[in-house]
Amino acid sequence: MEDQQSSGEEQARIYAVKTTVGRELDVAFIISMRVEEKKAKGEETSVRSIIIPPDIKGYVFLEVEKLSELYRVVSDIRYVKAGRPMKIAYEELEKLLKPKPVIEELDVGDIVEITRGPFKGMRAKITGVDRNKNMLTVNILEATFTIPITIPGDYVKKMSKGA
Questions:
Q1: Rounded to 10 degrees, what is the CA torsion of 31, 32, 38, 42?
Q2: Which tens digit of pLDDT belongs to each residue from 35-60?
Q3: Is the CB of residue 126 less than 8 Å from the CB of residue 136?
Q4: Which ranges carry the NusG-like N-terminal domain (predicted)?
Q5: Cα(152)–Cα(163) distance, rounded to whole angstroms?
Q6: Which domains does the chain possess?
């Protein structure tokens, strides 16, 4: 039984490269320029993709076939921290890239700002959460008296954690 590596063809893997926080885009841009230069010269490159997840600070993810190619494209980049790149499974990266629904982060008592609908711009306190229907019951804080209002969970932005 012949495996892929013995046939000369390696499978692409994803590696996390540690960078200076806030400089992820700079690192990705430099790597991209190096890959483009290689392609312009007619050389082959095994870098398939460069990924910068929005919620992960201090890391750039590269999909490469050859680890030596990874070391070559990140060498001498000022904002890349020394150390070995970490191999990441596709499933782990998918979890990082998949956005969480806003309602998953909300609880009763949290203060939110309503971002859509007729109450846009108002602050409210959550009195009930129905995660199955993606609905929130809130009381508007600026109102003279409290009337429970039911709004979709994606109409709010969390302001502060409730007591």
A1: 160
A2: 999 889 888 888 899 999 877 889 99
A3: yes
A4: 11-100
A5: 22
A6: 13-97 (3.30.70.940), 102-160 (2.30.30.30)
